[in-house]
Design goal:
This protein has helices at 3-24, 27-43, 45-48, 54-79, 102-120, 124-135, 140-147, 151-171, 173-179. Helices cover 75% and strands 0% of the residues.
Length: 182
Amino acid sequence: MNKKLESVYEEYNRYIYHLCLKLTRNNTEAEDLMQEVWVKVVRYEDSVAEVEHIKAWLTTITMNTFRDRYRKKVRRSKYMINQPETLDVPILDLVPNNDISTEEKIEKEVVTKLVQEKMGQLDAIYQKTLWYFYIDQYSLAEISSLMKVSIGTVKSRLFRAKARLKEMLMADVSVVEAVLPA
């Protein structure tokens, strides 16, 4: 290890450890993460001399390494479940089913229908604004130019429309019973 890398390690070792600890909230995982970070730093030791802001560079490496580990863990846990040494279940049972259930489909359809009915009772300007934003997925700037109003006006219309829609939905007892669990 060259002198520059040693001085970087001496100066930022505690900082990186505390950042890792803050991210993982676990001493063992923080140490593992920190070790991965320093392995990456050593791997790119030629770049250390060219970096202007070492602390920011190390922080970025730490954050990216943490994100990579988290994504890998989520991916792995999605496809694997804790099983005993011998599997008594077919392997296909371990593959996740990402399809929504029939009950969830029906519930979604019912809620969608209820919201659309209430949306139909809103003023046309609020209907249009909600439609553009949530259904057509237009940005605020696009809605602004379509409706020929300022972005601030679009924001306030969205706010008012959502508030009015919520008020109408909560006032309807049948909607509240259908959507909120008892």
